[in-house]
Amino acid sequence: MTQHRPPASPALAELREHTGWLARDLAGPLRRVSVQSGDMMIEVEWQPQDAAAAGPGRPAQEEPKSPEPAGTQPAGTQLVGTQPAGTQPAGRGAGGFIVISSPMVGTLYRAPSQDAAPFVEVGDAVEVGQTVAIVEAMKLFNPITAELPGIVAEVLAGDGEPVQFGQPLFRLTATSPDVAAEAAGTG
Amino acid sequence: MFSTVLIANRGEIARRVARTCREMGIRSVGVYSTADHDPRLLRHFDQAVHIGPASARHSYRDIPAIIEAALQTGSDAIHPGYGFLAEDPDFAEVCADAGLAFIGPAPGLLAALGDKSVARALMRQAGLPLLPGGVEPVSSAAQAAGLAAGIGYPVIVKAVAGGGGKGMEVVSAPADLAPAFERAGAAARSVFGDGRLYLERYLSPARHVEVQVLCDGYGNAVHLGTRDCSVQRRHQKLLEEGPAPGLSPATTAAMGAAAVRAAREIGYSGVGTFEFLVGEDECFYFMEVNARIQVEHPVTEAITGIDLIREQIRLAAGQQLGVCQDNVALRGVAVECRVNGEDPDRGFVPTAGLLERFEPPGGPFTRVDTHAYAGYPVSPHYDSLIAKVVVWAPDRESALNRMDRALAEFEIGGAGVKTTIPFLQRVLADSEFRKATHSTVLVDRLRAAAEETGYDRRARN
């Protein structure tokens, strides 16, 4: 990755960057690494014979494919920039960010009521425990709160949109030095 | 007819239902947990929704997640498959409240049939023969002892809310009754949250024979013949065949007629199975109703030519039964083997791991229902069924030979993964099984024989 082309969006640039590190850090021959913009998906697939070999850090029962970083942990706040949990020791990264994803299937509401302003907008600072959205499931309104502090960098799902379990809703830039370091893989 | 059906299940049955939906021109919606997030599983559906984490409680058993997924995708019906929420009356009711058709019996019927005590009372009223025993739950060990003396030993103590062989104790002498009653009650309380027990005569040796029924909401009902499921361990079936072998035509006809009569009597609708125990004298006794599509339904499909999932969807959409009893013709013999990710040499414990090799059999009259592929991770989160191999032949011997051929063809394996195939091959080679004189103790007999000869352990030690 010596050539550097201007990316289509800052989010994509970040994903590209992280995928590059990911690809270099991962053990064994990779079959495929795919990156998706918008919903921030990283897919990694190893060569099947490598999956059978069960090298250090890759238990035999490990799935050959990590469909998404959020897949290995309950939905909620995810640090992106580290490896998917359980597959590798934390990799190096820079400028880590936080993804808040939906803990359930439902409908996303970005404001407490139709006429009210959204809970958060891009550029807002978010504190731990602060409500950033509501996901309605079977007429129950479930507040979605931030588990880590950050600044909203991107809103990934729209008001009134149906969302799935684990679907990324917001991307935050980490503000706490500890979190930023952890997210960047240097902590 | 429905335009979109959400399939609230996973594995082979989800794919099986999606196939019929495709054939009927119905859009299918799959749901998946994080453990099943793989395009090789999800490509079978027209659309798929991520409903939760690997834990079934928060995904495939999560009613709000499934209802929300159905509403998001514009589904008009939900097919529950088997297991998970298939016989949950609350789920059926929530579906109705959300304006979604539940592809299965009405909630009231599910509740009645799920309570073994109520189900037995219903079936007694409907005229089905029951094993000697009480219909009412037994409240104390002393009361149980009195009842058992009347029934005669051996007796079996069962959980009213039971299923899957849990909370069951066989008692052969009066002195053992009180402790067995305590154990079964404790198990029933912890597994089902309902410690109520009932008692009946324990029939052994016996065959497990079931009758497949189809009913519409207009009073029409037919049976599609019998299946023998005697090859089971701890009440988990390993091999099923149809029609049930070694029974006189008069017996199977009487069982079919009894099941249809009872189904009509209770106002059953959809596909269902009446399970019976059959003694050596060919007397049969009602055990329970399975108010869902069953794992072994392809056996009946093979001998009748009827797509049971298609009928189930049609009936749930309010259509009338397309066949009458006179048009149901049973042809030949079908056998199903369950290829589970289990180690038969270690008490059938589930074995998880990566399926490095997976090449299912094919050839004449050989059907394999599976969701697996080479590279599929056999997950410890869900049941161990990997594939169902179903064969058909004009007669039983040819069918068993064909199954033997198919299992030998099956290329399956991976580090840590064991399957039931070697054990199934031993069943197919057993002389009693070949003569159809076996009973529900067959699996235990084969396992005991293997232990004695060291067949199982030698290689391991």
Notable traits:
heterodimer, A: 187 residues, alpha+beta, OB fold (Dihydrolipoamide Acetyltransferase, E2P), five-stranded antiparallel beta sheet, four-stranded antiparallel beta sheet, 3 helices, 16% helix, globular, disordered N terminus, B: 461 residues, Rossmann fold, Dna Ligase, domain 1, D-amino Acid Aminotransferase, Chain A, domain 1, eight-stranded antiparallel beta sheet, five-stranded parallel beta sheet, 15 helices, 22 strands, 34% helix, disordered C terminus
What does this structure look like?
The complex is a heterodimer of chains A (187) and B (461). With 187 residues, chain A is of the alpha+beta class. Chain A has a domain at 98-184: RNA polymerase II/Efflux pump adaptor protein, barrel-sandwich hybrid domain (OB fold (Dihydrolipoamide Acetyltransferase, E2P), Beta Barrel), CATH 2.40.50. Helix content of chain A is 16%, strand content 31%. Chain A contains three helices and twelve strands. Chain A has helices spanning 10-25, 48-53, 177-184, and strands at residues 30-36, 41-46, 65-66, 77-80, 97-101, 106-109, 125-126, 131-137, 140-145, 150-155, 162-163, 168-174. Chain A has a five-stranded antiparallel beta sheet. In chain A, strand 1 (30-36) and strand 2 form a beta hairpin. Chain B has 461 residues and is of the alpha+beta class. Chain B has three domains: 4-103, Rossmann fold (3-Layer(aba) Sandwich), CATH 3.40.50.20; 132-201, 2-Layer Sandwich (Dna Ligase, domain 1), CATH 3.30.1490.20; 207-453, ATP-grasp fold, B domain (D-amino Acid Aminotransferase, Chain A, domain 1). Chain B contains 15 helices and 22 strands. Chain B has helices at 11-24, 39-42, 63-72, 89-97, 107-114, 116-125, 141-151, 177-192, 249-265, 297-304, 308-316, 396-409, 421-429, 431-435, 442-453, and strands at residues 4-7, 27-33, 47-52, 77-79, 101-102, 155-159, 169-171, 197-201, 207-215, 221-233, 236-242, 270-278, 284-290, 333-340, 342-343, 349-350, 353-355, 357-359, 366-370, 376-378, 385-393, 411-413. In chain B, the strands form six sheets. An eight-stranded antiparallel beta sheet of chain B has the order 13-12-9-10-11-14-21-19, with helices on both faces. A five-stranded parallel beta sheet of chain B has the order 3-2-1-4-5. The longest helix of chain B is centred in the middle third of the chain and has 17 residues, at 249-265. The N and C termini of chain B lie far apart (59 Å). The A-B interface holds A 48, 51-52, 54, 60-61, 63-65, 67-68, 70-72, 74-75, 104-107, 137-138, 140, 162, 164-167 and B 34, 37-38, 49-53, 59, 64-65, 67-69, 72, 352-354, 356, 374-375, 377, 414-416.
